[in-house]
Structure formats: C-alpha cells, structure tokens
C-alpha cells in the first residue's frame, strides 16, 4: 500500500476505472469552469472559504464530475477567495477602510428612526384624506 502513490499509473488507472464505472466527467475537463465559478462566487456573493468549498463540491456533483482530492479543491477555493479579496481591496473596500464604530452608529440610527416612524404611523387617530384611523377610546 505504501507504494500505491509511487506508481503513478496505478492512481490514474483507478481514476479511469471510477470514471467509467460511474459515467463521470474527468475533473480536468471541468477544472477551468470550476475555477471561474469559484471566482464569481467569491466576488459577487462574498462567501467564505467553507461556503465556497461546500458550493464547489455541489457544483462538481451537479455536473457529474469526478471529485478531486480535498487538498486540490481547498487550494482552488483559497486562491479564488484570495483573488476576489485582492480585487475588492484594490477598489478601496479593504478591511482598513471600514470604520466599525461609524458603521454601527449609522445602522442603529437608521433602525431607531424606522421604529420611531412605525410608532407614529400606528398611533395615528382620526381622519386623513378620507381614511379613518383608530378612534379615541375615551
């Protein structure tokens, strides 16, 4: 068993047998498309490595392709994620550009204003442009 990986044809013979037995597409035939899919997902969705890895496995299964080794898949996903992050940071959206305190302040201010507007809306009483709202219960 220790010489299994030493003899290159054995590994490829078994891949060929698996491909033929289960009518699978060789990984090499879909690798470029998978790399493009990973890059698209990492750029547009912003998924993390774990989600991209899970998605890549699903993508390969949907195409009835032979699953590559996990280290190869991890490398492709990691490279795709890193390329997307580098591209994003080149546009000025890197982690150093995010002011966390300012972000949360703006978000909480927005939420508070929405709640305030909702309270004013649901507590209206009387008539407005022919529409009857809750009446006084006094």
Describe this structure in words.
The protein contains 5 helices and 2 strands; from the N terminus they run H-H-H-H-H-E-E. It has 138 residues and is an all-alpha fold. A hairpin with a 2-residue loop joins strand 1 (127-128) and strand 2. It starts with 7 loop residues before the first helix and ends in a 6-residue tail after the last strand. The relative contact order is 0.08.
Distance linking N and C termini = 89 Å
Helical amount among residues, as a percent range? 55-70%
Strand arrangement within the widest β-sheet reads 1-2
Q: Which regions are unreliable across 5 or more consecutive residues at pLDDT < 50? A: none
Give me the count of strands: 2
- Major sheet: size, sense and barrel closure? 2 strands, antiparallel
Tally of individual helices: 5
Determine Rg (CA atoms, Å): 27 Å
H and E order: HHHHHEE
Derived from helix and strand composition plus strand pairing, the structural class reads mainly alpha
Summarize the structure.
Helices cover 66% and strands 3% of the residues. The protein contains 5 helices and 2 strands, in the order αααααββ.
Brief descriptors of the model:
5 helices; elongated; two-stranded antiparallel sheet; mainly alpha; 3% strand
Topology (SSEs and partners):
Layout (H helix, E strand, L loop, with lengths): L7 H15 L4 H18 L4 H14 L7 H21 L9 H23 L4 E2 L2 E2 L6
Antiparallel strand pairs: 1-2
Helix pairs in contact: 2-3, 2-4, 3-4
């Amino acid at each position: 068993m220790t010489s299994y990986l030493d003899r290159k044809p054995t590994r490829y013979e078994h891949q060929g047998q698996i491909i033929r037995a289960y009518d699978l597409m060789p990984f090499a035939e879909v690798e470029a498309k998978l790399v493009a899919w990973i890059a698209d997902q990492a750029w547009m969705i912003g998924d993390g490595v774990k989600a991209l890895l899970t998605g890549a496995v699903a993508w390969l299964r949907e195409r009835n392709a032979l699953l590559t080794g996990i280290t190869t898949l991890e490398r492709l996903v990691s490279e795709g994620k890193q390329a997307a992050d580098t591209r994003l940071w080149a546009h000025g959206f890197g982690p150093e550009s995010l002011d966390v305190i300012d972000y949360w302040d703006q978000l909480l201010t927005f939420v508070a204003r929405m709640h305030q507007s909702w309270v004013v809306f649901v507590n209206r009483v009387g008539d407005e442009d022919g529409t009857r709202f809750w009446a006084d219960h006094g």
